[in-house]
Specification:
The protein is 26% helix and 15% strand. It has 402 residues and is of the alpha/beta class. The strands form 5 sheets. Strands 7-11-10-8-9 form a 5-stranded parallel sheet. A 5-stranded parallel sheet has the order 12-18-17-13-14.
């Protein structure tokens, strides 16, 4: 750590004034109590800084260009510094040769500030982004790209190995088997907000980022991470339309190996209303009040085939409807809002009614949550334990056949 005290008030005021002018010229004024944290990345004389909002009672300016010869330093400017007291500290990132050092990645391009990221080809759907629009946005400040690939054991594919063999430039790998609640007997239990924030922050993702998720099948496991990010407080989260297959089909570049990133601060804001537990599901099954929609394949819903997980009974929850997740997409892309509404109605589901989604372990159910959001229905929960929990419990009712 390098502590810089300069020559007293003059040096502090000079740096603070430069930051203030840069902030005014780029984003205007912001105010509030607490400290201001400035993180400069990159090695160019003109570096675009990135800020993480509200760090334990702190506030930030946002992002603006700062001219500094110290572009490889992380600046921390406290509020009292701007009032003429306190100290100015610059914390240098560890060098690549130091043990345990992690290389910070600059996600911005030189030149003027780019325009906001546009929505996907279905312009009415703010939850999608097209490969072309993501390609245009690569390297922009505040953009985090996440490879959320995950596969069933029967599919015989390794998500991490595929990520290292080729991923969208700048993408980090989100391990859906690792970012879970420790000790849970279920495969994909939501972690605590604190654990999620630590894991995702270690990937360099902040809740204030524009987050784009994709998977290796087109539309399979990415919606789960889209849903998780939103449950824990991220608001601008999008699914790459068509996933990695659409990206590569358009001849777009891939990176190999592991993406090295600097850490970020992800401030969780847990939305409990988006999640259903076993007790909630018992109430929905016995008392109604919310449509239960199971997205597993029809034969698993009917109980005519065994479940892939040992100790889990075959069948479905009484009163639930079946809408296989494969029916929600075409060629790895989410269907249009009109087509989704039509398919829901065919399955006996009210597209605008309160609902709760379920699947095998809580992953593909999120595809239906994405579909409901696409048609404007936001009164939808996801049963996190899904059939892995319900089907393995000894006292839960189970029906078979359609």
């Amino acid at each position: 750590m390098i502590v810089m005290r300069g020559s007293g008030v003059v040096s502090r005021a000079f740096f603070a004034f430069g930051c203030f002018r840069a902030g005014r010229s780029s984003i205007g004024r912001r105010s509030g109590p607490g400290c201001r944290t400035i993180r400069c990345v990159g090695g160019e004389p003109k570096a675009r800084t990135r800020f993480f909002d509200r760090v334990r009672g702190s506030r930030t300016f946002g992002a603006f260009p700062v001219r500094s010869r110290f572009a490889d330093l992380a600046w921390h400017v406290r509020s009292e510094d701007l009032r003429g007291g306190g100290s100015l500290r610059a914390i240098q990132r560890p060098g690549e040769d130091e043990p345990g050092a992690r290389k910070a990645v600059t996600r911005h391009s030189a030149g003027p500030t780019p325009a906001p990221i546009r929505e996907g080809p279905m312009s009415q759907n703010p939850h999608l982004i097209s490969p072309a629009d993501l390609s245009d946005a690569l390297g922009r400040d505040g953009l985090s790209i996440v490879d959320a690939s995950w596969y069933l054991p029967a599919q015989g594919r390794s998500a991490r190995a595929e990520y290292e063999a080729g991923h969208v430039p700048g993408a980090v790998f989100f391990d859906q088997d690792e970012i879970v609640e420790p000790g849970s007997p279920l495969p994909h239990t939501l972690p605590s907000p604190e654990l999620f924030a630590a894991k995702v922050g270690a990937l360099g993702i902040a809740a204030t980022d524009t987050i784009v998720v994709y998977d290796g099948m087109g539309l399979f496991s990415a919606p789960r991470v889209w849903w998780m990010m939103r449950v824990f407080g991220a608001r601008d989260v999008r699914v790459l339309d068509g996933g990695l297959p659409a990206w590569t089909a358009e001849g777009r570049p891939l990176e190999t190996g592991t993406q090295a990133v600097g850490t970020a601060i992800f401030r969780p804001d847990f939305d409990a209303s988006a999640v259903a537990g076993l007790g909630d599901m018992r109430g929905f099954v016995s008392g109604g009040g919310r449509q239960i929609v199971d997205v597993r394949p029809a034969e698993r819903f009917a109980g005519t085939v065994a479940e892939p997980r040992a100790g889990v009974r075959a069948g479905h929850m009484p009163g639930s409807a079946n809408l296989p997740f494969a029916d929600l997409q075409e060629n790895g892309r989410l269907k249009s809002a009109d087509a989704l509404r039509a398919r829901m109605s065919e399955a006996g589901i009210d597209p605008d009614g309160p609902a709760v989604t379920s699947c095998g372990s809580g992953v593909t159910a999120a595809i239906l949550n994405l579909a409901f959001e696409t048609i404007g229905n936001r009164d939808v929960k996801l049963y996190d334990g899904s059939w892995s929990e319900w089907g393995s419990a000894a006292d839960t009712p189970v029906e078979t056949a359609s």
